[in-house]
């Protein structure tokens, strides 16, 4: 499957935390995803991935909240990014 890298960015939030966002545009949707994007949005704190939104063949769109995996309903990239950053901000305020 052909893929075009749209974004690969790392955002340093502190000396112990960062966000990494990777988005590809695919030639066709992954199985179990109704859109043509492959993505990984990760929030890492204290050398541990505490939040991740991603999609993969066979699993579809989902998010990892610490050790728990739950479905995520993808509508578009802008909403995905807004949802991810809202969850990051909520977790950072809990410290």
Key terms:
95 residues, alpha+beta, 1 helix, 6 strands, 53% strand, globular
- Helix/strand-derived category reads alpha+beta
Strand content: over 45%
Continuous helix count: 1
Number of strands: 6
- Name the average pLDDT: 93
The main pleated sheet reads as: 6 strands, antiparallel
Distance between the termini: 41 Å
Radius of gyration (CA) equals 13 Å
Short description:
By secondary structure, this protein is an alpha+beta fold. It has one helix spanning about 75-95, and strands at about 5-15, 15-25, 35-45, 50-55, 60-65, 70. It has a 6-stranded antiparallel sheet, covered by helices on one side.
Protein model, in words:
With 95 residues, the protein is an alpha+beta fold. The chain is built from 1 helix and 6 strands, in the order ββββββα. The protein is globular. The mean pLDDT is 93.
Helix-strand layout with pairing:
Elements: E1 3-14, E2 17-26, E3 37-45, E4 48-56, E5 60-65, E6 68-71, H1 77-93
